[in-house]
Amino acid sequence: MIVATSLVSLALCCGLAWWQWDRFTSATGTFQNLGYVLQWPLFGLFPAFMFWRIKKLREREEQAAGQPEPPAPAPVRVPAPRPAAAPVEEDDELAAYNRYLRELNARDQQS
Questions:
Q1: pTM (2 d.p.)
Q2: Burial of 44 by CB count in 10 Å (0-12 exposed, 13-18 middle, 19+ buried)?
């Protein structure tokens, strides 16, 4: 069933590539049609690739199931948090800027 699906997919997509090639070589053909000529065979090969990939993943899972589990890693020690730093005092320029922002906010709230 898997082989049949892959072959049907490949045959169908190669037919579509041939159709796009005919479109490309016609008077109204564009390079977009040529791009499709290159894409369709890749689309046709995709189901076969997926079935092959699934088979390899299953084999890898079966091999891993037969092997003992590796030992658990040692616990990681997290350093103690540092004490909070003292708040930074505002300088005159920053304080003036913050006052300006508060005034602008107050104007926006009034309107």
A1: 0.49
A2: buried
- Does residue 9 carry a pLDDT above 70? yes
d(CA 110, CA 105): 9
Which amino acid would we find at residue 99?
Answer: R
Mean pLDDT of the chain: 87
- Measure the CA–CA gap between 20 and 12, rounded to whole angstroms: 13
What does 1-69 look like in DSSP terms, one character per residue? -HHHHHHHHHHHHHHHHHHHHHHHHSTT--HHHHHHHHHHHHHHHHHHHHHHHHHHHHHHHHHHHHSPP
For residue 80, what are its two tokens?
């103690």
Query: What pLDDT score does 88 carry?
Result: 67
**Segment 20-36, tens digit of pLDDT:** 999 889 888 889 888 98
